[in-house]
Write a structure and sequence with these properties.
Strand content: 15-25%
Number of helices: 6
Distance between the termini: 35 Å
Helix content: 40-55%
Number of strands: 8
Strand order of the largest sheet: 5-6-7-8
Largest sheet: 4 strands, antiparallel
Order of helices and strands: HHEEEEHHHHEEEE
Length: 185
């Protein structure tokens, strides 16, 4: 259990918390995925080309699903640190939902799994796993920055200062950057 816990802690530690805009968009998408859209996953029909080759059915994902997957990568939730080939995908339906570490592992399972089995992301959309991942990660970002000034390291630059103010319990957080710009996160 000690090794597994260390492995999980490394997953959350690898998140790119300095990508504030990506985290804000991820939180917005988490709310958006609370309701399913009929066009999130549409399968093509198998067909034969003019040259006689057969094209098997494959999923076409909606722009919001594609953007959610891109954001998971941008914030570091899809990581080679997650040993997704030897562990099971966490169950998002268990009481209490996903932990932040489980959300990173589940995101890696979902995105990497799509490369080997078309429709893995589609299944995650329809059974609520993608929504659970987004909600958990959005809450993780808010908890990480709770309590005022936070120093967020950026690669190759001096740390920037961010101040988060607002009602954290209800998800209303305002981000104030060093340059004075504000935005609701």
């Amino acid at each position: 259990m000690g090794d597994e816990r260390t492995h999980e802690s490394r997953l959350t530690a690898a998140l790119h918390l300095d990508r504030v805009d990506a985290w804000a968009e991820l939180a917005s998408l988490a709310d958006d995925f609370a309701t399913a859209a009929a066009d999130d996953v549409a399968w093509t029909r198998p067909r034969e080309t003019e040259a006689g080759a057969f094209v098997l059915a494959y999923p076409n994902y909606s722009p919001r699903v594609n953007r959610a997957v891109e954001l998971l990568d941008e914030v570091g939730a899809v990581t080679p640190r997650a040993d997704w080939t030897t562990t099971r995908c966490p169950d998002h339906r268990k009481p209490g939902g996903l932990t932040p570490d489980e959300a990173v592992l589940a995101a890696t399972h979902m995105v990497r799994g799509e490369r080997f089995c078309e429709g893995t992301i589609g299944t995650a959309v329809t059974d609520g796993l993608l929504h659970a991942i987004l909600v958990t990660l959005a809450a993780t970002d808010r908890r990480t920055h709770r309590g005022g000034p936070a120093s967020v390291p950026r690669r190759g630059r001096a740390p920037a200062r961010y101040v988060y103010v607002g009602d954290h319990r209800h998800g209303q957080v305002t981000h104030i950057a060093r340059d004075g710009r504000t935005r609701l996160v």
